[in-house]
Amino acid sequence: MRIRDIELIAFGGVQPPASSERVIYLHKGPDFLSRLDRVVVAVAPVRMVEIGIFHGGSAIYWHHRLGLERLTLLDIAPGAPQLEKYLQRHSLEGTVRAHFGVSQDDSETVRRLVSEDTAGAAIDVIIDDASHMYSPTLASLECLFPMVRPGGAYVIEDWAWGHCQGWPVDSWSEHPLVSPLIAEAILVCGRMTGIIDRVEIDRDYAVLWRGNTALPQDGSFRLKDHYFARDFALP
User: 149 - beta bridge partners?
Assistant: First the structure.
């Protein structure tokens, strides 16, 4: 697809080719992007946060697609040159705030940057496409989910990487799966406290829909405090 002066290519393979200044790869296939687009557009977001941006293709897509007032980007990488040049060429640095060298489990830094970028306003959609591992993903969720507005969406991508057909048994075997976190979110939903209203499961992502219950935004929110597991085995 053509967006301003670049060609944005939705790529669903294992590893896309290197992006260039005028051709940027979005590391999601067209079908994946289409399904996720329906979720995000339904929220009609004004403020979004994206954790894990790769070459920056999805950031460019969401900003252009939605006309966002604020898009905060966080990535552990030192930079995304093609995205940064794109933002500079089109004077978008005031709307799209990219923060590099930030680990998603550095909760204090993540909370500070997002709060500064949004001036304390509630967030409509958060997309986590970062580590895909249990502990860092949980850290981001506990830090940022309280900032999502009622009716907003918190998306965790690629939750099923270790379960899908064809995934090599020994690949990433040393990394804890993120899927137990999805189970915890389901238990929070089932507790019916208005924290998570529903959990939507897609093969490529899970959506945690924010309920109306107010949550502390000082870093003290812990998912485990809001479900009753009984004999359901969890980490």
Answer: none
What secondary structure letter does DSSP report for 163?
Answer: T
Half-sphere exposure of 1 (CA within 13 A, CB side): 15
Decide if 6 contacts 24 (C-beta within 8 A): yes
Q: How far apart are CA 128 and CA 140, in angstroms?
A: 8
- The reported pLDDT for the residue numbered 203 is 95
- What is the reported pTM? 0.96
Whether 187 is in a domain gets the answer yes
Q: Report the CATH number that the domain containing residue 156 is assigned in CATH.
A: 3.40.50.150
**pLDDT lower than 70: segments of the chain:** 235
Residue 70 within any structural domain of the chain: yes
d(Cα 97, Cα 91) in Å, to the nearest integer?
12
| Residue 57 one-letter amino acid | G
Q: Residue 19 falls within a domain, yes or no?
A: no
User: What pLDDT is attached to residue 234?
Assistant: 75
Q: Which domain holds residue 140?
A: 29-226
27 token code pair = 């590391």
| 194 found inside a domain | yes
Confirm if 93 and 123 have CB atoms less than 8 A apart: no
- Our count of domains for the chain comes to 1
For residue 191, give Cα distances in angstroms to 18, 29, 146: 45, 35, 17
Mind listing the pLDDT tens digit for each residue in 90-132? 999 999 999 999 999 999 999 999 999 999 999 999 999 999 9
